[in-house]
Design goal:
38% of the residues lie in helices and 20% in strands. The strands form two sheets. A six-stranded parallel beta sheet has the order 3-2-1-4-5-6, with helices on both faces. Strands 8-7-9-10 form a four-stranded mixed beta sheet. A hairpin with a 5-residue loop joins strand 9 and strand 10. The chain is globular. The chain folds into two domains: 233 residues, Rossmann fold (3-Layer(aba) Sandwich), CATH 3.40.50; 104 residues, Dihydrodipicolinate Reductase, domain 2. The chain is of the alpha/beta class.
Length: 346
């Protein structure tokens, strides 16, 4: 069985995802978190359509476009021509800052929907740049019209839009999100750290996470409006692990072009233990954005396919809580992981 997938946004995350599908299609398991999800292997995922608005990528084979500028994700493997030509995507006037001055090639919702439907894509992944909220919603509507499940990996809070969520529910088409959470990135590391301290009886008073990185996603997040939106989502996700109010701030602070697709996250946490004795942690984490998304995205796609095939929304919450920073029904990390794996990996 093949999971036919359409990708909206051929950026760094898409680049590593496509390379990962190639790398693991032959049975390789090095670095692979869950070889089987919903009875499916990574090699069962097939990209059948792709969209972007950058003229440097549109019209090229997907295997070529994933390495086009301004992408800076590392080339891990050679990817042979796929036969999937990147088509013009959706732009609703919310073009990402990194495309300022570049030629934008766009298309309408009906054309996108038709191509998704004609390709046979059962799942559409939204990987467009942060800040493209109107475009993200248009992609969601295009997927809905095509009868394709929609995975929103961006910080656009689509699942909080009741009319959109209701439309997917009436059509019995899954919509999942929002804002994909990395396997071992800043947000999940911060959440795990705070949860561990809380479980060990430390009373947390203050904590922050400051991210510095390269790549287009970090560049876009430096835009003040996008930075504020991302900070709201990430801070809420982190605060979820502590059962009381405390001071916390988390978000991107700067862009360094020569870091490429890598990121450094700085964490500081202060708390109190026995007799009010002080406890503080000051650490940093270095990771790669695109690669950090690979395992989670593979898992979410395979689980979504199972739900979509059954036409049953019973386990959508488990997928969202496991894979996203801002799910409709939040869970603690341990609970989300245990519930996801019990449903989809056993």
């Amino acid at each position: 069985m093949k999971v036919k997938v359409a990708i909206a946004g051929v950026g760094n995350c898409a680049s590593v995802f496509v390379q990962g599908l190639k790398f693991y299609s032959g049975g390789e398991k090095t670095g692979l978190w869950h070889p089987l999800v919903a009875g499916l292997k990574p090699g069962d995922i097939q990209i059948v359509a792709a969209f972007d608005i950058d003229s440097r990528k549109v019209g090229s084979d997907l295997a070529e476009s994933i390495f086009c500028e301004p992408n800076v994700a590392k080339k891990y493997v050679d990817v042979p021509p796929s036969g999937v030509i990147v088509g013009p995507g959706i732009s609703k006037g919310d073009t990402a800052p990194h495309l300022a001055g570049s030629k934008v090639v766009s298309s309408g919702r009906s054309a996108i929907s038709r191509r998704i439907r004609d390709s046979g894509a059962e799942v559409t992944i939204n990987l467009v740049s942060s800040g493209s909220e109107k475009s993200s919603e248009e992609y969601a509507l295009a997927a809905l019209e095509a009868g394709s499940a929609f995975i929103n990996c961006t910080p656009a809070l689509l699942l909080q839009r009741s009319s959109l969520k209701s439309a997917f529910a009436r059509a019995k088409v899954p919509i999942l999100g929002d804002d994909l959470m990395s396997q071992f990135g800043g947000t999940v590391f911060h959440r795990g750290l705070l949860r561990f301290m809380t479980n060990r009886g430390v009373k947390i008073s203050k904590s922050y996470q400051l991210d510095v990185g390269g790549g287009t996603e970090t560049f876009n997040t430096i835009d003040e409006s996008i930075r504020a939106a991302k900070r709201t989502v990430k801070t809420a996700s982190v605060a979820r692990e502590v059962p009381y109010q405390f001071d916390t701030v988390t978000g991107t602070t700067d862009f360094v072009d020569y870091m490429g697709n890598d990121r450094t996250s700085y964490f500081w946490t202060e708390g109190r233990g026995f007799l009010g004795s002080g406890v503080s942690i000051d650490v940093y984490l270095r990771s790669s954005d695109g690669a950090n998304a690979g395992n989670i995205l593979m898992d979410v796609v395979r689980a979504t396919h199972k739900v979509a095939r059954r036409g049953d929304s019973t386990h959508l919450n488990e997928i969202c809580a496991y894979g996203f920073k801002s799910p409709s029904q939040p869970m603690h990390l341990e609970e989300a992981y245990e519930r996801f794996t019990s449903v989809f990996t056993t």
